[in-house]
Design goal:
The protein is an all-alpha fold. The protein has three helices and no strands.
Length: about 100
């Protein structure tokens, strides 16, 4: 594949994800109403704040552990889920 084809495919994927996310938020707003939509938006802020406040780089660490240390993919995946849940709960507590 040429570089332009790769760039276009990434752009098309991102545009599709943006469109689907927009439509999902519109449907949630119509279905939930104004009060529950505020709670929905607050819950959507948790991943954004966790990314902005500093990425913990656990995904990069898991790739290193799988490639160089020979750890199993299942163990690293389980660890990533546990760390994500704990950090989300931690940030959710403060929000």
């Amino acid at each position: 594949m040429r570089l332009t084809e790769v760039i276009f495919s990434l752009f098309a994927r991102d545009a599709f994800i943006l469109l689907i996310g927009f439509l999902t938020n519109v449907l949630c707003a119509r279905w939930l109403g104004p009060n529950l939509m505020g709670i929905w938006v607050a819950l959507l802020l948790i991943p954004s704040y966790s990314e902005a406040l500093g990425r913990l780089q656990f995904d990069n660490a898991s790739v290193y552990l799988i490639a160089n240390k020979g750890k199993s993919v299942a163990k690293c995946e389980q660890l990533l889920h546990i760390v994500t849940i704990i950090s989300s709960l931690f940030l959710g507590f403060f929000i």
